[in-house]
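[Automated response] Your request has been received and processed.

Submitted sequence:
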Amino acid sequence: MTPEQALEKRQQLLRDGFCVVDSILSDEFLRELRDETERMMEDWVPPPDFKYQGQHVTARGEDNPTIQKLLDWPPTRRALEQMDLGDFASMGGIILLTKDPGEPALYWHQDWMQWNDPLSCSPWPQIIFVSYYLSDTAPENGCLKVIPGTHHKRIPLHDEMVPAHEQGARFIEENHPTMFSDHPDQVDVCVKAGDLVLADARVLHSAYRNQTHERRTLVLAWHRRPETVPAYWTDEVPAIIAERDPQKEYAGSRIPGELLQ
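Generated structure:
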């Protein structure tokens, strides 16, 4: 990336809650990841309550050399550094997320679990999901959908959703009128195999049903940065962040409360 491209992508991540880095995986490593992820899923039987997430196989880098190679992948580290996001570090594990042929859509949700913490108001991301796509994606095979800006701004959908994942959404019906709805502001994030999607944990996102005859696979990793003001940040720091007590323990919550305005 040129410095101008890197700045544009970081600004998009801050503004919209996501960005795409093209062709981050080499062809050789892409083939290696496809082979290894298929091996990992070969004998896996997904629990029934994970039907909206697909295979949902987890692994730690310390237990799998190929996964550790991905977590340490130099082009990703270089891209983060170029975007001034080099203080983000992997949490050490991955999740394989698939859409097999005919599998249902993934419901609307966000993945931030600290909604009682003033960090919820940070104008920069604190936790991002880093998704490596092993398949080309389009609405027909289950591409990602994002509602830009929802990591910073509350919309009616926030208050209409069933709480994410194990707190309720895994057990809803496939025809739930809110959780699988289209939103007028949604963006379809269509990518090529080998591309990387970076997204703020707070942004609302979902995925389409797979209507094709081929599996759609991605490898998702979580990255976290220190609870500090990023070096690139030159605007005013919000008072709620500047006055936050770093020693206080904030009760975890997946449900956006009064901190999301």
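Summary generated for your ticket: The two ends are 35 Å apart (CA to CA). The chain has one domain: 3-225+236-242.
If you did not submit this request, please reply to this message.
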